[in-house]
Amino acid sequence: MASRLRAPAAVAASALLFFFGTGFAPIPGLSWLAPLPVLLLAPRVSARVAFCAAFLAYLLGLGGQFEFFLKTPSVPLPIGIAIVVGSSLLFGLVAWLFRALLLRGLPLLAASAPPAVWVAFMYVTVLANPTGIVWPLATSVADVPVVIQIASVTGAWGLGFVLLMVPAAIVAVTWPGALPAARLRTGVAGAAACAVVLGFGALRLADAGEPAVQRVAVMSASRFQWAPDAAGPGGQALVKDYARQIAELPEGTMAVLPEGVVGTDEDSLAGALRPLRTVARERGVDVVIGIVHTTPEIKYNYSVHLPADGSSPVSYTKWHFAPGAPFRRGDTLVFAHGHGHDVGLANCMDLNFPTPIRGYALAGARLLAAPAADEFGNGRQHSRNALLRGVESGVSVAWAAQQGTPMISDPWGRVLAETDTESSSPFVTAAAGVPEGPGTTVYARFGDWFAWLCLLLAAAGGLRLVRRRRSAAETAVTRRTAHTVGSA
After folding, report:
1. Angle at 89 between CA 83 and CA 95, to 5 degrees
2. Inter-helix orientation angle 77-103/157-174, to 10°
């Protein structure tokens, strides 16, 4: 009876841990534990049961995100289904490979190759996915600064790897079928990985006491309005309301407003910006605002900087969109006028990709001003995705979401200020001083090298597995032949 309940119990336990340890409102500690039940199960059941249990556990663990993928306009439904089902199948493959390597006496490879497979497949998927990635595991620990510093070297890929390697190593070390020496090597490797992550994090955070060099405020109307017509009464009133909020900020602040605050055309653009340009000049405040601008030929999704000195605005054209979006894609880095290369402009989905953020970091940017929209449910997770991009490339991030979690993070991924648009107040504001930061990171210089390393490690694990199977098959044939000859 107990053996029959083993698989359902493991599925239920992992599903609950994934549900509460990942997603839109994760409990970070649970994300490390979530793979454990199904990985403990894997070597004790058949390959088919191990795969199906892991697939089902991960699929059920994503239950809190189903509604988002069904309703979001940002991710087409086929892509949403592919993300949910594909990542669940991938986790099933991880458990299957873990079982196969562990049962063949390869505990060290069992602890490292399956996490590498996870990262490798995620990376390949991202290369083909037009909506980029919001890391399904890494964002769950984004609020633990000592852990996420490794992203400055490996990218957030390293976080996904270690989050799976730790539970895999625990199971591999405790598996009684492994040889003592192999178990020791696996334990040492797992402990070393944890020591490197935590030690590097502590060392990097020890230098994170820099004074603030720029005052930043992110603000949002707590009523979601996507690009209301700037020439209409609603759009005009909204811009004036934002101007009044900006007038209350201290001189020298950079105010970052959300994506799609208003919709403009050639006739209404100058008038829409006038109240904001006036308050920016009078109060000595820089303003960055998201605008959807329509021309007779095509639409643009702009992040517009209105300089405090009253000089002409500069516009950044968003680079990345969901498939079918009727916008012209940008391909140029744009810096806030008057700030040299210290402040780069970006926009929402751009932070689902390493570009243009790495380009800004390499050009010397220390702050990324990012108007964003976000949607019901996913705002906090998306803000943490932006935070991790900042850690990767060594820049502070001012994330001004229309709906969700307006946030300011420093280059070490510490949340300096944040607020929530689910508020009874008509406007919400979060403000903080951001430091200059440590400068360009290893990841900014070398990009997704760790993901490529995981591709090689995954291939090595698969090759070793095939060789072991072939060797076992040859041994079996030899034994049968010897038995037949002996009988003759």
Report:
1. 135
2. 30
pLDDT mean by block of 10 residues, the chain; 488 residues: 80 96 91 96 96 96 82 76 90 96 93 95 88 90 97 97 96 91 93 96 92 95 90 94 96 97 94 95 97 94 97 96 88 95 96 95 97 86 96 97 95 96 90 93 97 91 72 45 44
Query: Cα–Cα distances in Å, from 171 out to 96, 145, 419, 459?
Result: 14, 26, 40, 22
Query: CATH number of 213-444: 3.30.360.10, 3.40.190.10, 3.60.110.10, 1.10.150.240?
Result: 3.60.110.10
Q: Which residues contact 396 (CB under 8 A, 6 or more apart)?
A: 214, 216, 366, 367, 368, 390, 408, 409, 410, 411, 416, 434, 435, 437
How far is Cα of residue 69 from the mean position of the Cα atoms in its chain?
16
Residue 306's φ and ψ, nearest 5 degrees, are: -105, 105
- Separation CA 403–CA 418 (nearest Å): 13
The DSSP element (H or E) to which 292 belongs, if any, is: strand 286-294
Distance CA(368)–CA(305), nearest Å, equals: 12
Q: What are phi and psi of 5, to 5 degrees?
A: -85, -10
